[in-house]
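*** Fold description ***
***
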Amino acid sequence: MDEMRKKIIIQEINSWKESRMLPEQYCNYLLALYCQGELLPANSHKTGSDKKDILSGLLLGALFAFIVCLNYFTEIPIRMQMLVTTISIIAFGLAVRRFIGKKIIFQMALMGMALSLLLLTVTLAEVMAPGKTGILYVFLFINCGLWVLLGIKLKLLHFSIAGGMGAIVIAYFLII
C-alpha cells in the first residue's frame, strides 16, 4: 500500500477515535495494524480543535448569561423576552447537534438549552396565570420530568439527579 493511502486511512481512524464513532480499542487495533508496529501518529490537529472548543464554550456561556440578564435585569416587554429565550433554545439545540461527539461542550449546550427552556416555561406560567402557583408547579414538574428522561436516555447522571431533586423540592413546597 502506498504511503499516501496509508496516511489518509490513519487520519480517518484518528478522526473516528476522536469522534467516538468506533470504540477506542478498535481504533487502537486498526492504528497498530496500519502503522505496522511503529509509534502511533500524534493528533496534530487536536490543538486547533481544543481552541475551537474553548471558544465555543465561552460563547455558549456568554449566550446563557445574556439570556438570564435579559430576563431578569431589563425592562423589555415579556413577549420580547420570551421570543429571545425561544431563539436561544434553538441556538442551544443547534449547538447540541453540532457538538454531539464532544463531551464537555455537548453537555454545556444541553444544560444551556434545558435552563433556557426552564426560564421560558416559568415566564410562560407567569403570563398565562399571574399569581397562580399551581400552573407554575405543573410546568416545573414537566421540566423535571424532561430532565430525568434526558438523563436516562443520554446516560447523564447529573441531569437525572437534578430532575429528581427538583421534583422532590417542588413536592416539598406543595405539601407545606
In short: The mean pLDDT is 85. The CA atoms of residues 106 and 145 lie 20 Å apart. DSSP finds seven helices and no strands in the chain. The longest helix spans residues 46-72.
